[in-house]
What we know:
A six-stranded mixed β-sheet has the order 5-12-13-3-14-15, sandwiched between helices. Strands 2-1-4 form a three-stranded antiparallel β-sheet, with helices on one face. A two-stranded antiparallel sheet has the order 6-9. The model has no long low-confidence stretch (mean pLDDT 89). It has 24 helices and 21 strands. By secondary structure, it is of the alpha+beta class.
Amino acid sequence: xxxxxxxxxxxxxxxxxxxxxxxxxxxxxxxxxxxxxxxxxxxxxxxxxxxxxxxxxxxxxxxxxxxxxxxxxxxxxxxxxxxxxxxxxxxxxxxxxxxxxxxxxxxxxxxxxxxxxxxxxxxxxxxxxxxxxxxxxxxxxxxxxxxxxxxxxxxxxxxxxxxxxxxxxxxxxxxxxxxxxxxxxxxxxxxxxxxxxxxxxxxxxxxxxxxxxxxxxxxxxxxxxxxxxxxxxxxxxxxxxxxxxxxxxxxxxxxxxxxxxxxxxxxxxxxxxxxxxxxxxxxxxxxxxxxxxxxxxxxxxxxxxxxxxxxxxxxxxxxxxxxxxxxxxxxxxxxxxxxxxxxxxxxxxxxxxxxxxxxxxxxxxxxxxxxxxxxxxxxxxxxxxxxxxxxxxxxxxxxxxxxxxxxxxxxxxxxxxxxxxxxxxxxxxxxxxxxxxxxxxxxxxxxxxxxxxxxxxxxxxxxxxxxxxxxxxxxxxxxxxxxxxxxxxxxxxxxxxxxxxxxxxxxxxxxxxxxxxxxxxxxxxxxxxxxxxxxxxxxxxxxxxxxxxxxxxxxxxxxxxxxxxxxxxxxxxxxxxxxxxxxxxxxxxxxxxxxxxxxxxxxxxxxxxxxxxxx
Length: 615
């Protein structure tokens, strides 16, 4: 076997015709400042070419149905092996995605119950909350019910005319307000706190006998006879019991601000039908399995004594032990993936590969210890070394000092970011790096200095009796006006406390989390930050034309490529090819838009500037 992956002339993104040899069966760390080209080398060059060449071995019929990779801009890459990529992209996070489904454990648990559970509910799909045979008919497998939060809807200290109905679609001058202001059974000037039980019933649900409300249109004088509905009844019909995706976004958001989620009373939040819940193994049903902490589920599986069940339980146990090994033993299989922290999600993705007996694979990981407590980072490091010891190449993009100290080989890209990066500034072992003159070497020589004089504080944001996820009746005060660090091992409840409980109690807080920003071929730093709007206004004012001329999504777009700057022709089974648009030369704008200037530069020239140059 060749001893290194040889890359020659790599010129993807900011790489400057890079030549590098990456040793195999080593833990290789790619270091360097953000934007120096680490991810470009690892993912856009090595992983992309490995995926492209691997797919080339499949029949054309199959290749036409797989994602297609364009050949990266590199002269040649030799001695590649198949690649497994563990990046920072979020796990498919939706209401039906759980730790069990994301880790592939849930199918095995369903199989176990379909073979051993008594009484049997049927095949494995009969135990799935995502399948009609197994899902609860009332909540369709979601395990929760969405209902109107009446405490948010009504202000009992006001009358209807004073705005007691907080939902703007039913008050504040909306035509639907007439249902409640013109109702003969309701006094619109009486505070809701003083309403009788009968009046509350009329306001919330409706009248015992059908009631017609007359509505006179001011502009035409036409009279409509409208059947009366109470606030709760009407809200449920218009906003909860039908698809509202076609409504204006602000209406959708306002409607959802008045609802709450609660466990489905029919299935107890399990999402399963009674037949699936009645099937048990040693006194536990499948919902009990899902709800247990993973570390507690292991001994339950070991107690399965059925000959067929033992084999399946052993496979499940193998997966679960890997989860415990990466520090996820505190999770339950029914934990929704959209509630996991970034560190938890990435480790969950790693579990898939830990039990593999494959060798001579290249594993590429993107900052696997980002945001992790040092003790958790140490666990990840040991796992990576274990992968290496099974004769695999482990390539890690990292900034962590802990990971640097574990690496067999370090490649630093730089010297800076963007156009000033894309070069190899150091390659060798850790001892050599410490003596080098690179930014990473300089940072390693620096010792962290704690704040010698923390800023005092007097006021704070109180959080009382927080119980989200694993929080146990936590009460704490977060100081105002100072920098506060919330620390603890992964899964200790930091994200639940701050991103969950704190934000719920103080919704005016600005949240900057680990979720990726919207990414598309038309999204740029300027459009995402909102700066693009101001740039367009400057150009429009300077040239006396509309702002649409300075958008490649509108009037200013090249008519051939529609503002993309490139064209990707359909080539059936062949490797995809992206061609620069001949009409605009990749500039994305049409000649008219490019004819307008601001301080001697047209819109494309301004957008090509770096932020430093623009300043």
